[in-house]
Amino acid sequence: MCYRRKASGFTLIELMVTIAILAITVTIAIPSFQNVIASNQLQEGRDRLRMAIQTAKGEAVARNQTVSLCPSSDGAACGDSGDWDESWLVVVDNNATGAVSISNTLRVFDAPSSSEVTLVHAGGFDYIRFEANGISENLNASASFGFCSPDGKVDPKSLVLSPSTAAIRTGTIAEANCP
Predict the structure, then answer these.
(1) Rg (the chain; Cα; Å)
(2) 3-class SS at 168?
(3) pLDDT digits over 48-93, tens only?
(4) Does 111 map to a domain?
(5) Residue 157 to residue 125: CA distance in whole angstroms
(6) Residue 11: inside a domain, yes or no?
(7) What is the distance between the alpha carbons of residues 16 and 14, in angstroms, rounded to a whole number?
(8) CATH number for the domain that contains residue 61
């Protein structure tokens, strides 16, 4: 008697069906995954600004000096345009009136990439100044920062600072003021 061994493996049809199912799954999953990445970029930008504000406030109290957080286009000097979408400086501020006078740059924070995040702000301020007691003297009204997706496909994130104390809270979608 001759026994025939059954060949093991996959047929061409089985392989083609498996590849087709895999292709359909990947086609469905990639757009959803891109939205997750975009949402994480917005959240990361918001968290980076939160850290910059907390650093400025903490340094003011720790040093018992006035410390300011300001936007900067070159990473060396504070800008006066109120454009917060480049980098942010935490500086020891010797000027008690008017514009920021940099005595010592403590830290530079990079803003999120403008191709991934559109940063908008409301409150009409060019800098946030903290006194030695941790109170902000130049915020007369609530200030909000919105982190918006350039294509608008992802819900925006926001950060709101209360007047004077500059207590930080996560804002709502409406408080982001996205275009």
Answers:
(1) 25
(2) strand
(3) 999 999 999 999 999 999 888 888 888 778 876 677 888 888 988 8
(4) yes
(5) 20
(6) no
(7) 6
(8) 3.55.40.10
- State the total domains in the chain: 1
In terms of Cβ atoms closer than 10 Å to its own Cβ (0-12, 13-18, 19+), residue 16 is exposed
* Structure token pair of residue 121: 């702000």
Q: Report yes or no: 155 and 39 within 8 Å, Cβ to Cβ.
A: yes
* CA dist., res. 82 & res. 127, Å (int): 7
Question: Does residue 45 contact residue 119 with C-beta atoms inside 8 Å?
Answer: yes
This prediction has a pTM of 0.79
5-30 pLDDT, tens per residue? 666 778 889 999 999 999 999 888 88
Which residue, among 52, 50, 44, has the nearest Cα to 160 in the 3D structure?
Answer: 50
- Tokens (6 digits) for 130: 């903290």
Residue 3 lies inside a defined structural domain of this protein: no
